[in-house]
Specification:
86 residues; mainly alpha; 0% strand; elongated
Length: 86
């Protein structure tokens, strides 16, 4: 486990790095693999960072866009085969 006195600062640095990575479009898997897993923090702290990354607004917006696209595509395909009408 990292030095107790440096952990709050390290957590702030990692949150900032996570936010930067997510804002530039990195995936949650990449953030976990490159920032969270090698951080040498406790499992609890790593879990907190993962939840922070998972709940980041930029990541949520991208997920909503992907889901909206999938719904629209599904509706279009169903319309093409005559099962669904808007």
């Amino acid at each position: 486990m990292a030095n107790q006195l440096g952990e709050p600062q390290r957590m702030r640095q990692l949150r900032a790095a996570i936010a930067t990575r997510l804002e530039r479009g990195d995936s949650l898997d990449t953030v976990e693999r490159e920032l969270i897993a090698p951080s040498r923090l406790s499992e609890e702290q790593q879990s907190a960072l993962w939840v922070y990354a998972w709940s980041h607004p930029k990541r949520q917006a991208a997920t909503i866009r992907r889901l909206s696209f999938c719904v629209a595509l599904g509706n279009a395909l169903l319309t093409l085969i005559g099962i669904y009408r808007y």
